[in-house]
């Protein structure tokens, strides 16, 4: 059921964002895979078997992304996921990525208590997807509210879905608008 056309991994090295240079650059990475949409062009009532079929791809993509960011789960501070459905599909087809993408990252990272933020939309080939990101252990860590833009020039085709994962090794480079600091996480409930 899962036919992958390509996988693309991208890593940004952020040295500053207009302020002073960081002692250690922040790495922001994404992995995008283009998958044939078996439901394109028609309504199918029962689509959940594809969710289970996507689980190995979720693990493969999460591993590729973690490796591209240095391979150390302890360095990853934030994450997110998303999907961009080609024009012959529907939003619900992108929602199939929630479990395979999110749980794959959480499993690889060990302690990852916060829900994985997500974005799904339908769009044309070459459209961009802004994948939301927040802290992996506490969703209210404001310094880690961010995003990664994912776009592939040749996808998704009308009968494809682009599934994406994102991880970072830090928050925004010069975060200074308050809120819960990562050092102040105390409840370990995924929120605070």
Rg, Å, rounded: 17 Å
The CATH C-level name is Alpha Beta
* CATH architecture heading: 2-Layer Sandwich
Q: What is the H/E string?
A: EEHHEHHEEEE
Structural class: alpha+beta
The backbone outline, from C-alpha atoms, is: globular
**Through-space gap between termini:** 39 Å
Largest sheet descriptor: 7 strands, mixed
Q: What is the CATH topology classification name?
A: 60s Ribosomal Protein L30, Chain: A
Q: What is the CATH homology-level superfamily?
A: BB2672
Low-confidence spans: pLDDT under 50, at least 5 residues? none
Provide the residue-averaged pLDDT.
97
Count of distinct strands? 7
Q: Regarding quaternary structure, how should these chains be classified?
A: single chain
The number of helical elements comes to 4
Number of domains: 1
What portion of residues belong to β-strands?
A: 25-35%
- The portion of residues assigned to helices is 10-25%
């Amino acid at each position: 059921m899962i036919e992958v056309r390509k996988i693309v991994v991208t890593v940004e090295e952020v040295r500053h964002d207009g302020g002073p240079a960081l002692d250690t650059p922040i790495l922001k990475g994404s992995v995008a895979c283009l998958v044939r949409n078996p439901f394109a062009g028609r309504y199918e009532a029962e689509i959940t078997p594809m969710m289970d079929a996507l689980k190995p791809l979720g693990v493969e993509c999460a591993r590729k992304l973690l490796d591209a960011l240095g391979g150390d789960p302890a360095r990853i501070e934030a994450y997110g996921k998303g999907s961009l459905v080609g024009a012959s599909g529907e939003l619900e087809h992108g929602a199939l990525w929630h479990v395979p993408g999110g749980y794959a990252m959480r499993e690889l990272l060990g302690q990852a208590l916060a829900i994985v933020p997500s974005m799904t939309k339908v769009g044309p080939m070459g459209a961009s997807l802004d994948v939301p990101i927040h802290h992996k252990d506490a969703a209210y860590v404001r310094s880690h509210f961010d995003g990664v833009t994912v776009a592939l020039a040749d996808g998704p085709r009308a009968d494809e879905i682009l599934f994406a994962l994102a991880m970072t090794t830090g928050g925004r480079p010069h975060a200074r608008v308050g809120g819960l600091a990562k050092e102040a996480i105390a409840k370990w409930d995924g929120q605070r």
